[in-house]
Specification:
about 400 residues, alpha/beta, Rossmann fold, Tyrosyl-Transfer RNA Synthetase, 3 domains, six-stranded mixed sheet, about 45% helix
Length: about 400
């Protein structure tokens, strides 16, 4: 489908549009006017992860084409918990925990939208906290029916699996619809975007605006992004791939993208980089060994976008030293240990990997050793006694876990 407005053409060409509410009318409006659009983010952790990256990119492209992007942080709604796409009720956080999380996450938004121009970060606690519940139910509760809410996939799937869905969570949908209404009244916001699991919530907000404000509003959802094997995007054996530097190093972040499946490279270049479409088209034709060049470009561009150019340059330099030049780079995670402790068996390979924080648990480290998943100086580690005594005469050794994680043990 071809759109007349630059913003919709861009996100459509890159594969962001899954569902929409009257997108043709929205296209006509955007062609002639600057608009305001928003995406809501629950603040359940002190960092967003790569699962939020597609929403951040949508805000970026809206801002890029001169419109107002609103990153709505759910200081109020996170106190309740969104049931969408969840099998069970979320852990309830305190306001202090949520406020701390918001502060840690705000810097991420600045990499995607221009807060010095007209885009905004807004906290819905500012208006939700002052609502009178009885007045709220009287005015808005009658506008959204339970019948319709039960048809939404986010609710239906929970009930079909006989998973509990609390009254608290049901209220979340009403509050999110109210968020859109509030932003429409106060910021002339006419567009809500979100993941496909937010479709029901977005519909509710559009309906509420029509009933209360007698205005038309619009919605766009993005597809659920999975890896080519069907697994959830951004989940690894070690957990989520976080956007904040203090949660995962820029090298590990870079390596996550460098090691994506060949079949995912083209899709991820369109969604998660700002490279021109024609350049991505050329990269998408690469096959076999050549596709590694496209993977390096993908990893560099996403790391630059999320962490900044300095971090991206450093990550690719370290990766080239390790994997291309076989140089032990001093910027890798490193620890020091006395030679005598290696000789006496006081300090083992398990201790080294644990202190380097390359693997979460000691039992997992032992499992990896048994399955030939650990190398020392690029040779498989096979000592059943877990000793490092044979390396005690060296000044340092490189310890590798699979192809992605490594660290240096300096021997004193």
């Amino acid at each position: 489908m071809k759109f007349k407005s630059d913003f919709l053409n861009e996100i459509n060409a890159r594969g962001f549009i899954y569902q929409d509410i009257d997108i043709e009318s929205l296209d006509q409006i955007i062609l002639k006017n600057k608009i305001s659009g928003y995406i809501g983010f629950d603040i359940t952790s002190d960092s967003l992860h790569v699962g939020s990256l597609i929403q951040l990119m949508l805000l970026h492209w809206l801002d890029f084409y001169g419109h107002q992007s609103i990153a709505l942080v759910g200081g109020g709604t996170t106190l309740i918990g969104d049931p969408s796409g969840k099998d069970k009720t979320r852990k309830i956080l305190t306001k202090n925990q949520i406020d701390k999380n918001i502060k840690n996450i705000e810097k991420t938004f600045t990499r995607f939208i221009n807060l010095d121009d007209n885009s905004l970060i807004i906290n819905n606690y500012d208006w939700l906290s002052s609502l009178n519940y009885i007045d709220f139910l009287r005015e808005f509760g009658s506008k959204i029916t339970l019948n319709k809410m039960l048809t939404f996939e986010s609710v239906k799937s929970r009930l079909d699996r006989e998973q509990p869905l609390t009254i608290l969570e049901f209220n979340y949908m009403l509050l999110q619809a109210y968020d859109f209404l509030h932003l429409n009244k106060n910021y002339n916001c006419i567009l809500q975007m979100g993941g496909s699991d937010q479709w029901g919530n977005i519909l509710s907000g559009v309906d509420l605006i029509k009933k209360i404000n007698s205005k038309n509003a619009f919605g766009i959802t993005s597809p659920l992004i999975t890896n080519s094997d069907g697994s959830k995007m951004g989940k690894t054996a070690d957990g989520a791939v976080w956007l904040n530097r203090d949660k995962i190093s820029s090298l590990d972040f870079f390596q996550f993208w460098r090691n994506v499946n060949d079949n995912d490279v083209s899709k991820f270049l369109y969604l998660f980089t700002k490279l021109p479409l024609k350049e991505i088209e050329k990269l998408s034709t690469l096959r076999n060994e050549e596709i590694n060049e496209a993977k390096k470009i993908l990893a560099y561009e996403v790391t630059k976008l999320v962490r900044g150019k300095q971090d991206a340059d450093e990550a690719i330099e370290i990766a080239n030293n390790i994997f291309s030049s076989n140089i032990i780079d001093e910027r890798l995670p490193n620890i020091s240990e006395k030679k005598l402790n290696l000789e006496d068996g006081i300090f083992s390979i398990v201790d080294a990997i644990e202190k380097l924080e390359l693997v979460k648990s000691r039992s997992e480290i032992k499992r990896l050793i048994k399955s030939n998943g650990v190398k020392v100086n690029d040779e498989l580690y096979k000592n059943s006694n877990l000793s490092l005594e044979q390396f005690s005469e060296l000044k340092e050794i490189k310890i590798s876990i699979g192809k992605k994680k490594m660290g240096i043990l300096k021997i004193l």
